[in-house]
Amino acid sequence: MKTTETMEGKVVMVTGSAAGIGLACAQAFAKAGATVIMADINEPKEQAEKLAAEGFNAIPYRCDVSNAAAVKEMIDWIVATYGRLDAAHNNAGIQTPQRPMAEITDEEYNRTVAVDLTGVWNCMRYEIRQMLKQGGGAIVNTSSMGGTVGFPGQAAYIACKHAVLGLTKTASIDYAAKGIRINAICPGAILTPMAAELIQHNPQVETDLLRDIPAGRMGRPEEIADAVLWLCSPQASYVNGHALLVDGAYTVR
Ligand code: NAI
Predict the structure, then answer these.
(1) Which band of pLDDT confidence, cut at 50, 70 and 90, is reported for residue 19?
(2) What is the pTM for the complete model shown?
(3) 74 is in which domain, residue-wise?
(4) How many domains does the chain have?
């Protein structure tokens, strides 16, 4: 059986799905037969409508993941409307402006933590409560290759991405016996609006990345989506608490 056949009838929520990796993941889940709730601080109305016009089940939902009450409201709405939540991809994230650690402002630090770490915390908490009620589910959190190594000028962001791995590993132990699998995806340098903005501010980033990526190129959002889909599928039934690097061999040089 192909992975793409195993999402038929599943209810899946993806955060940060208006653009980049989240959008590619929402598209992949929808095309694999799932009903996908596309959550984003910028409501992905057009993106969901495009999928619906192609015959897939995609529903846009405006939600700021840093707001716990808003996340609870969204999960409650999903369960009230669709009866369950089979899989969730907690992917929304923001970058901190690139500066040495002591020059990052409190405001920048606090907002980065609120979205990149507390956002994942908020989502997991309500997803897990629902998955416990229904007897199982699969969660994938987006960390980064920066969840496993340091990068210059990104202290707040990298700290959050490391913390997401700690959260993933610990929660996977807490709930493994309850039929809930919790894994992390660690993308390398992926061509998305976030990466484009980083490169626009500092073109040297692209030169350095291309020099250092053994694959010799940046990754495509669809290459992350394939891995996320697999992590959420029954084919990954014994994969739990794992941090899956999809980085063109960047971190193993
Ligand atoms: P992106 O900037 O292209 O898309 C991120 C999406 O998240 C946007 O649609 C944005 O509106 C949404 N978002 C931002 N704050 C939000 C909030 N508070 N609540 C709900 N939605 C919010 O970013 P990209 O590149 O697709 O990144 C997705 C995830 O992958 C992030 O967690 C990022 O840290 C991670 N990542 C990206 C890499 C890359 O090279 N692009 C590398 C490693 C990790």
Answers:
(1) very high
(2) 0.97
(3) 3-252
(4) 1
